[in-house]
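Lab manual, section 2.4: Encoding a predicted structure.

Procedure: take the sequence of the chain (332 residues), apply the prediction step described in section 2.3, and record the output as structure tokens. A sample record is shown.
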Amino acid sequence: MSINIDKNPESDVLPERIRRFPFPFTAEQYRYSANVEPAHKTVETEAGAWGAGLIDIDEFYLQELADRDQILTRDPSRMQVLPHMRPAVWDALTAVLSSMAEDYPDTMSFHREGNTCRWQNTLQNLNIEFTAGDDDSLPGGPMRFLGSQIQDDIVLLDIREDTMWLDAGLVSFAADWSFSFDVGMNFLEIHGPVPRVKEENIVRRAEQFLMRLQPGEQFRRTNWTMTIGQRLDTSTETYPEWGPDRGTIATDPDLPDKLHLRVEVQHLIRLPHTGVVMFLIRSYLLSLTDIAKVPVWREKLGHVLAELPEDMAEYKGIIRYRKAASDWLLAS
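Recorded output:
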């Protein structure tokens, strides 16, 4: 699926990574909100469009999957499935493969008769038959296999005791958090460190919304931060590799090329058979140099960074360089 809906005559000369980028700001300031909307809804931007399908496959598909494989080989704790969640993993796998086959019929197909399934993905020269429910029928098991087919991170939330629990997932591209630390926590515990959300009751309202989702319903939201370098894995576990850059980037003459706006498109899905809530978290990076090629984006991001309250800037980890980034954007 290729999205190319242009709103101005200059957008057709922009690279695909810009035209497809899910720029998250509609105003010149930002505050936390649920910002939930129905999935499968195309969003037109000043550069192009995004959001038509559930799973987005772009020019970085094979490279990001190779990066994930290396991360999981190095640190298997990035994938965990508590025993009671095995049926939910299979529910997630078959739901996502079915959606991909529908959205990308030229390159993918999924057929199921009873528990016998066949998946074809010509982007990977893959043609495989497996048995739904039999973990040994897929290389690495169903969660690892799903993670080898999509660029999204995967989080599965079980619902019990009137709350949701993070009991399974595969997260190789965490943005300054630790999946292995959060496994087994409930929804409120996971979001406890986020400033302002408790006072404004955002987390509890979001949880109630998710728990009311009907089987098969799909919604989405966006979230954002900033990342130094073309690096998706900024997990807590790898902080020594990327954390020190936060202290030096503000005075780096290459700041516009090295500093990236990082946007997550989070799909929220109530799985059809188990009722578990699945989060699919797709992360995108776009440098300030590329942001500045879209004048409206340059202005909005510059003002958002300048106006963002201190506690929110601190939590996002951008406090030491957000002024330098804002100054560059607004002076461009």
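Check your result against the sample. The first strand starts at residue 37 and ends at 38.
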